[in-house]
Amino acid sequence: MSQRNPFNAPSGEYAAAAVAPSLGEAHSSMKVPKNAVWWKKFLAFVGPGYLVAVGYMDPGNWATDIAGGSQFGYTLLSVILISNMMAVVLQSLAGKLGIVTGRDLAQACRERFSFPVVMMLWILCELAIAATDLAEVIGSAIALKLLFNIPMLYGVIITAVDVLIILVLQNKGFRALETLVIVLMATIALCFGIDLFLAKPDMGGVLHGFVPSSELLQNPAMLYIAIGIIGATVMPHNLYLHSSIVQTRQIEQTAQGKREAIRYTTMDSTIALTLALFINAAILIVSAAVFHSAGMTQVAEISDAYHLLTPLLGTTIASILFGVALLASGQNSTLTGTLAGQIVMEGFLNIRIPAWLRRLVTRLIAIIPAVIVTAIAGEHGTEELLILSQVILSLQLPFAVIPLVMFTSDKKSMGPFVNKLWLRIVSWIIAAIIVVLNVYLIIQTIMLF
């Protein structure tokens, strides 16, 4: 049974059908100054892009970056750059969808697709969010063990407490949450900036690494890690998240107001993702400069990298900064993952439950399997669980990317804001690349088990 399609509105605008916005407590809660200079308006839109960007540097990315740098030096920097360019395009589409239609991606799916399809998409998305949160829980627990020698099992349990941080910040307003995320991102960038200085990478090799090499397609091992980097970079829940949190700004509901909001939102996410590019690249560069240069080409695990940095660089500060950055990364991704969980449930099911309950459920879904695996299989089991979480994310990604490109390329949905021909072509090419590479990654990962 197909549901009513509010996309078919006069003049191509989204019909003003009654629908409760996701994150209702923050919706249109932040004012945008009128008749102000451009940079003051831009600052009013700064924030959502950084909440999205944290998903592109979460602990799930660290293992692939470390493995790529230690095994192949600077060569895979081009893959990180290409992945980031894909992310910039997709996140700009997600922001535009939310601004133009007043719906997030989950709500758009609910109103466009049949009930069975909506339920399937919701279940897949919930699995992806649980997998994402699982990676953050494990990453934070690893950081606590490395920095404070807290056993992994206790570290996993401790991560449940950070749900309280979200609740306290949410009560202080959405800007407080955005500020914390930006501070944590700056902390990660500072830590790796110092580690980069200590590692003294070959700048010529770094610049050459950003140029795509034909070796990527000729070396199966290199291709596998390259696909892993792409698969771990674009996170499906970020598309749902971005399409919702851009609606926290009060904008003029006119064509000019929406066009201005799209421009500043795209600037915000592009700058934030550029910072994410720097951090991801820095992880790989440090790995290449320290491990690959020393002939250690098999360093792939986060804990191994932490322990080897000190003897190779001759200072304990390198390992400490690495651990602090990992902890900040895990906590940052946790904040945005739980927000995405609330958005997805409200958007797909159109039901409202208390925010604290939704976030507690999201966290328990991730913590329970992590506790069980850690207790039974130890730390090695958590590493395998981290790999499994990335496979689950890869499975769900096409089911978020394809509807997003489809909706924003539909004249009836977007009216005058519909994707231009060149953008439709680029978007569908990106979607096809992501689908093909993720299917390949899943097949190869399954063959490893």
UniProtKB/TrEMBL annotation:
<feature type="transmembrane region" description="Helical">
    <location>
        <begin position="385"/>
        <end position="409"/>
    </location>
</feature>
<keyword id="KW-0472">Membrane</keyword>
<feature type="transmembrane region" description="Helical">
    <location>
        <begin position="421"/>
        <end position="443"/>
    </location>
</feature>
<feature type="transmembrane region" description="Helical">
    <location>
        <begin position="113"/>
        <end position="132"/>
    </location>
</feature>
<keyword id="KW-0406">Ion transport</keyword>
<keyword id="KW-0769">Symport</keyword>
<dbReference type="InterPro" id="IPR001046">
    <property type="entry name" value="NRAMP_fam"/>
</dbReference>
<feature type="transmembrane region" description="Helical">
    <location>
        <begin position="306"/>
        <end position="328"/>
    </location>
</feature>
<keyword id="KW-0812">Transmembrane</keyword>
<keyword id="KW-1133">Transmembrane helix</keyword>
<feature type="transmembrane region" description="Helical">
    <location>
        <begin position="360"/>
        <end position="379"/>
    </location>
</feature>
<feature type="transmembrane region" description="Helical">
    <location>
        <begin position="271"/>
        <end position="294"/>
    </location>
</feature>
<feature type="transmembrane region" description="Helical">
    <location>
        <begin position="38"/>
        <end position="57"/>
    </location>
</feature>
<dbReference type="Pfam" id="PF01566">
    <property type="entry name" value="Nramp"/>
</dbReference>
<feature type="transmembrane region" description="Helical">
    <location>
        <begin position="152"/>
        <end position="169"/>
    </location>
</feature>
<keyword id="KW-1003">Cell membrane</keyword>
<feature type="transmembrane region" description="Helical">
    <location>
        <begin position="181"/>
        <end position="201"/>
    </location>
</feature>
<protein>
    <recommendedName>
        <fullName>Divalent metal cation transporter MntH</fullName>
    </recommendedName>
</protein>
<comment type="function">
    <text>H(+)-stimulated, divalent metal cation uptake system.</text>
</comment>
<feature type="transmembrane region" description="Helical">
    <location>
        <begin position="72"/>
        <end position="93"/>
    </location>
</feature>
<feature type="transmembrane region" description="Helical">
    <location>
        <begin position="221"/>
        <end position="241"/>
    </location>
</feature>
<keyword id="KW-0813">Transport</keyword>
<comment type="similarity">
    <text>Belongs to the NRAMP family.</text>
</comment>
